[in-house]
Write a structure and sequence with these properties.
Radius of gyration: 28 Å
CATH class of the largest domain: Alpha Beta
CATH superfamily of the largest domain: Ribosome hibernation promotion factor-like
Helix content: 10-25%
Number of strands: 10
Distance between the termini: 59 Å
Structural class: alpha/beta
Largest sheet: 5 strands, mixed, barrel
Order of helices and strands: EHEEEHEEEEEE
Mean pLDDT: 84
Strand content: 35-45%
CATH topology of the largest domain: Double Stranded RNA Binding Domain
Number of helices: 2
């Protein structure tokens, strides 16, 4: 492991097994985020509660270029569960930081507009002409609203366009007041 790792036990005895588990989990964080500069882990046994027994707190401080994060998991009866939960939360934070650094933002598909040119009620399918003149196939299962039975030839629709094996497919077909060709 390359990153500086600091492990502190508070109000509990030092444990080789716990320290090994922490080193392993910190090593995985380092593999996941190569720019991780330091990791500080504090394990603390809180005062014993007469009904709950021993309770543990795990605190992880992470430092990456330009940011410092702290994860805190309180009141677990099992120190290994607290440790697992804290490192899982730390990994999620690092994932988010990596996405933001890459500016990896999820883009939603924009609906395509068109007009129904053919309906086959027996087969439960139809064709839509897109604004650029292409035809897309759709089936009863791809209609969101209104129901397939209420669609009419000439109705303006919006849909998500996908490439099929031999044709374009219209998914999530919705009829309504949409501007066709505009």
């Amino acid at each position: 492991m390359q990153i500086p790792l600091q492990i502190t036990f508070r109000d509990m005895p030092r444990s080789d097994a716990l320290e090994a588990a922490i080193r392993e989990k910190a090593g995985k964080l380092e593999e996941f985020h190569p720019r991780l500069m330091s990791c500080r882990v504090v394990l603390e046994e809180k005062r014993r509660h007469k009904h709950q027994g021993r309770l543990f707190n795990v605190r992880i401080g992470l430092h990456v270029p330009g940011h410092e994060f702290v994860v805190n998991r309180d009141d677990h009866e099992d120190v290994y569960v607290a440790l697992r939960d804290a490192f899982d939360a730390a990994k999620r934070i690092l994932e988010d930081e990596i996405r933001l650094g890459r500016q990896d933002v999820k883009c939603h598909e924009q609906p395509t507009h068109g007009r129904i040119t053919r309906l086959d009620p027996v087969q439960g399918s139809g064709l839509i002409e897109t604004t650029n003149g292409a035809e897309a196939f759709f089936s009863r299962e791809n209609v969101v609203s209104p129901s397939f039975e209420r669609l009419e030839v000439g109705a303006e629709v919006q849909f998500l366009l996908e490439s099929g094996k031999d044709t374009l497919l219209a998914k999530r077909v919705t009829a309504g007041k949409h501007r066709f060709g505009g």
